[in-house]
């Protein structure tokens, strides 16, 4: 029998996993001379290379036997200790009922949450727009997504309340809600403190879990109250997810979850089947980078770079973008959202033209679980150089102009 | 509402994930003065710490911007290139229709295979006994397991053929078969070349996939033909899985899969939702360790250490073990299987006594998908020191003796 058609071997659920447009696109862009405003890569200027040389040597010579060996599924104890200290300095409350599990990037945190907490047909609330990696990870468990719109103050919790009331009247129950309250990806907004409190009340009243994803709260560009939902709830129903990807190195793939210890026990059981544990070596390196204050220096350096690049992108949009386009003024994070003048315009269809012209972005549709957002796109300012940002926006403007004619 | 009972939030499939006895046990053992013959840890003597200090420094200073950054889901190209060269030197045929994807340890390879290829109720053939990590990973997809016994020549392919014929007569079809043909964990046997050929023929005839797990073929202690199933099949139905855990560092969590490129495309799509990619940094370090011959030196050194330790364990068993016990004489790998004299003895029940007395092992039942093996156990000789092996076997023998009285 021939293997020319392998589709007969593929499990049904794989059809649910769409190839992420971000990643597919990065592949094309990497091989051409294209300014990429796609992706969400940190600026390599922020990588503390020399400090890491010193740390690698110290860890290998002093603790090599442990740092190169298998380690516990929940994470290396001394790293977990440093993380909890770091979180507490950031104002993230880790209570005595909580526990922390280290994950292989925050993407794995989302996968573990999907496998452990979401059954097929469960109702799962997502923001419109939301993070593509979360949508993809959750989709594997075949939930019913409910989309709730954002505005400048984050997720509109009044609309959420109306939807919850209606669902419950129909005898339906929401299992969990996913949000990026501070410095949202891709929207660039921060949920107001009042709405954060309202959201926590709704979770109590309607008995659902909140997954709070917090990769960007170190990068806020205006005075902002960044109190996490985790600290606003005392009932243990907030599951807090974060990562070192933007504040040390994405190449280490270090993420973590803080949650009620009964839930973390289930996460741990799950993770064991996924990869036994997150690499020991990068956990030891990260512990040392936290302990010696290197992570805090990276944050300071990166925040200054990203604030400047954000201003460069907003100025370039002001100077060159086609009239009628709308764009976000991010108060944090790494992204600007751009909306084209007409509802019938489609940024996915426009993407190949843009790449031909020399600029890449992420089409917005994939960020919306309700199928909307086709005339939006996400622009990244953390990775490209300042002059590339200006040049990229000029090219993009021309591509849009030619579509409008 | 209270969070005192979180079970209402837990997805049904989590019940399928059993806590691995190996890992639970390691937790207890780590906190007491107990000689551990459980686990499967490499001897830290084999870790090339000084060489890695040099490599870390070189990679960070010369390639730091890439080595600390996000990288492709399929793996870092130059690492994939080094791996293919390494495999080809080992006699593993990577054909032009094949592709290689890097995974976060071989555990993730097994998880990806489970998610991508196994639907609920699919028939999946496992050896009796088999690797616990594979059983756990596959169980998540709720297959029907079929167990085929091993003898000194590996999986008995004649028994397999009879089972296949019977299943097909009933209109049932096997989806895939999982095997560790060389230096089996936990059985220590190697499948004879004739049986390897027979197995490949059966896969052709009955149209199933073979997952060939090969973590230990560098550690064979007798002249052995180690031709992998992958090289015996030209139809692309063998999926080859391996890892650097035993030949460089388990703390790097580096595994990989070689398979037909159409299958690898599906694996890649799946992995994207799991953790985006395996840590970039440890891939760069591993590429350099392969390129500069460090992995080959580790193999030579480790093989000599493990052969000696295996002989020490076999001698200690000869000298001290209770009459009536049977144990394997491993031709490769890191483990000895021990069977107690009576069928009604249960090594799981005996485990706490053993730990109290000062020795740990892995009860055998969890290695058998058919519920047998309760009077067997797995003993590891790669990690404990030689004197600990002797002492551990003496203690174990006394524990068994007191059960027999």
What does this entry look like structurally?
Two copies of one chain form a homodimer. Chain A has 405 residues and is an alpha/beta fold. Chain A folds into two domains: 15-48 and 300-404, Aspartate Aminotransferase, domain 1; 49-295, Aspartate Aminotransferase, domain 2. Chain A has 13 helices and 14 strands. An eight-stranded mixed β-sheet of chain A has the order 2-9-8-7-6-3-4-5, sandwiched between helices. The model of chain A has no long low-confidence stretch (mean pLDDT 94). The interface between A and B is large, with 85 and 86 residues.
H/E series of chain A: HEHHEHEHEEHEHEHEEHHHEEHEEEH
Beta strand count of chain A: 14
Determine the mean pLDDT of chain A.
94
Largest sheet of chain A: 8 strands, mixed
Which pair of protein chains has the largest interface, and what are the residue counts? A-B, 85 and 86 residues
Shape of chain A: globular
- The CATH homologous superfamily of the largest domain in chain A is named Type I PLP-dependent aspartate aminotransferase-like (Major domain)
What count of domains describes the coordinates of chain A?
2
- The CATH architecture category of the largest domain in chain A equals 3-Layer(aba) Sandwich
Unreliable segments of 5+ consecutive residues of chain A: none
Order of neighbouring strands in the sheet with most strands of chain A:
2-9-8-7-6-3-4-5
Number of helices of chain A: 13
Strand content of chain A: 15-25%
Write down the oligomeric state: homodimer
Classify the fold: give the CATH topology of the largest domain in chain A: Aspartate Aminotransferase, domain 2
Under CATH at level 1, the class of the largest domain in chain A stands as Alpha Beta
The Cα radius of gyration of chain A reads 21 Å
Which bin fits the share of residues in helices of chain A? 40-55%
């Amino acid at each position: 029998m021939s293997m020319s058609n392998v589709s007969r071997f593929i499990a049904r659920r794989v059809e649910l996993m769409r190839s992420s447009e971000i990643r597919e696109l990065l592949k094309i862009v990497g091989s051409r001379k294209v300014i990429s405003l796609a992706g969400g890569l940190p600026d390599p200027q922020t990588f503390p290379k020399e400090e890491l040389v010193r740390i690698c040597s110290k860890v290998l010579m002093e603790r090599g036997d442990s740092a190169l060996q298998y380690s516990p599924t929940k994470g290396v104890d001394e790293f977990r200790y440093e993380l909890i200290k770091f979180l507490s300095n950031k104002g993230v409350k880790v209570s005595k009922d909580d526990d922390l599990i280290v994950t292989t990037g925050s993407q794995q945190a989302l996968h573990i949450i999907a496998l452990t907490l979401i059954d097929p047909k469960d109702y799962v609330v997502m923001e419109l727009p939301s993070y593509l990696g979360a949508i993809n990870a959750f989709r594997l468990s075949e939930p019913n997504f409910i989309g709730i719109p954002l505005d400048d103050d984050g997720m509109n919790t009044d609309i959420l309340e109306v939807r919850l009331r209606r669902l419950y009247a129909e005898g339906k129950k929401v299992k969990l809600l996913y949000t990026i309250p501070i410095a949202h990806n891709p929207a660039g907004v921060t949920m107001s403190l009042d709405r954060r409190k309202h959201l926590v009340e709704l979770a109590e009243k309607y008995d659902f879990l909140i997954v709070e994803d917090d990769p960007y709260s170190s990068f806020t560009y205006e005075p902002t109250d960044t109190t996490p939902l985790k600290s606003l709830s005392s009932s243990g129903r907030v599951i807090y997810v974060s990562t070192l990807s933007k504040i040390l190195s994405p190449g280490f793939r270090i993420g973590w979850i803080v949650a009620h210890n009964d839930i973390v026990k289930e996460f741990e059981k799950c993770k064991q089947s996924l990869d036994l544990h997150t690499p020991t070596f990068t956990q030891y390196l990260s512990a040392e980078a936290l302990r010696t204050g290197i992570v805090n220096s990276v944050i300071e350096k990166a925040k200054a770079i990203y604030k400047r690049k954000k201003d460069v992108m907003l100025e370039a949009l002001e100077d060159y973008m086609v009239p009628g386009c709308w764009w976000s003024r991010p108060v944090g994070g790494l992204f600007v959202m751009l909306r084209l003048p007409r509802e019938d315009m489609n940024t996915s269809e426009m993407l190949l033209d843009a790449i031909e012209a020399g600029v890449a972005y992420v089409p917005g549709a994939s960020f919306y679980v309700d199928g909307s957002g086709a005339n939006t796109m996400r622009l990244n300012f953390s990775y490209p150089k300042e002059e590339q940002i200006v040049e990229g926006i000029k090219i993009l403007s021309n591509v849009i102009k030619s579509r409008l004619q």
